[in-house]
Design brief:
single chain; 341 residues; mainly beta; 4-stranded antiparallel beta sheet; 2 helices
């Protein structure tokens, strides 16, 4: 079996596993040019309005950049921070433009623009049929940070929930929303929000600047900060384990969960740790790499490099079974997040 065929097979599994059971695999007619493949959000240069989204085919042979503009004939906006998805739609969060562009996720045809009720939006997730978006407000005050609640039927902000300072990534589990708060050496909280009542429940103290969250197969929440990895019981919302980093690890980011293992990036290396471990991993799976962000799925790693933050960025794909690179693709300016469509 060739590497390319093996990769195509694995990517097909990734995409099928991401489909909703409601689809029931009965949809055989193509729903659009971007129905399958990989989507990459690009921040673009701050203040220049050149944010974009790229599409990469499953075979990793075809790259189309700036698909929003190609389809809709207009620019996407300024600083595409992240994306979120429902069965039919993609929500592109534009931090500097203070808006969310809603598109059909398969055709990328624009559907709506959400531009009221947002203030420096960052990340979005879906829970109980509603959208939840972290907002910084103005950077300096610590009293104007919040989660915007979006009615997905009308694409309007219907409620706001105050959070701790600088809410970033967020993850939904059951009737709870967990929000990492803090960045740039600030903050050390994960806020818990009840998504049934849309009310703040409590804050959990973790490490400084928590930056990424994952739920494992046991329902435990893992929080990666710049100084440690924290495991939280999602029933009691209590910290059950804290794994401190060695002094040589000054920062870490991009926590991923795949097949019972946690992966994260730190100091030019990718670390792998079993969720049953209670100590920092002593071995790396990749070294001498430079990732602005990364995604691990089905034992493949997709690493994004923003290079000099002015030139076209790249995505490098690695087979983690062999720890070998299988593809290196040129994308658009400042690739920030990887998604499987």
């Amino acid at each position: 079996m060739t590497k390319q065929f093996q990769l195509l097979s694995i990517l097909s599994v990734i995409l099928l596993s991401s489909c909703s059971d409601d689809d029931d695999f009965r949809q055989f007619e193509p729903r659009g040019d971007y129905e399958s493949g990989i989507l990459i959000s690009h921040e673009g240069n701050f203040g220049q309005g050149n944010a974009s989204v790229s599409w990469v085919s499953n075979s990793l042979e075809t790259v189309e950049t700036d698909i929003f503009s190609n389809v809709n004939g207009s620019p996407l906006g300024d600083t595409a921070q992240s994306m979120a998805f429902t069965q039919e739609f993609a929500y592109i969060v534009l931090n500097v433009s203070n808006k969310i562009e809603v598109v059909n996720r398969f055709t990328f045809k624009a559907v709506a623009t959400i531009d009221a009720g947002l203030s420096s939006p960052r990340y979005m997730t879906i829970s109980n049929g509603k959208g939840y978006v972290s907002n910084w407000g103005d950077f300096t005050p610590d009293t104007d940070d919040y989660i915007a609640v979006i009615d997905l039927a009308t694409n309007t902000v219907t409620d706001t929930i105050s959070t701790s300072y600088l809410p970033e990534e967020l993850i939904a589990f059951g009737d709870k929303l967990y929000v990492a708060t803090g960045v740039f050496g600030l903050g050390n909280q994960v806020d818990v929000i009840n998504t049934t009542t849309n009310t703040f429940a409590e804050s959990i103290t973790v490490g400084t600047s928590p930056n990424s969250l994952q739920i494992d197969n046991t329902g435990s929440l893992w929080v990666l900060s710049s100084e440690n990895l924290v495991k939280i019981n999602t029933t009691t919302d209590e910290v059950v384990d804290t794994i401190a980093f060695p002094d040589a690890i000054s920062s870490s980011s991009d926590l991923n969960y795949d097949f019972g293992n946690l992966y994260f990036y730190a100091a030019g290396s990718v670390y792998k740790m079993s969720v049953s471990s209670t100590t920092f991993p002593t071995e790396t799976v990749l070294d001498n790499v430079n990732f602005y962000d990364m995604r691990v799925s089905n034992n493949f790693l997709f690493g994004l490099d923003a290079l000099d933050f002015q030139s076209e960025g790249t995505m490098t794909v690695y087979d983690l079974g062999t720890e070998q690179m299988v593809a290196n693709l040129t994308l658009d300016v400042i690739p920030g997040e990887v998604y499987f469509n």
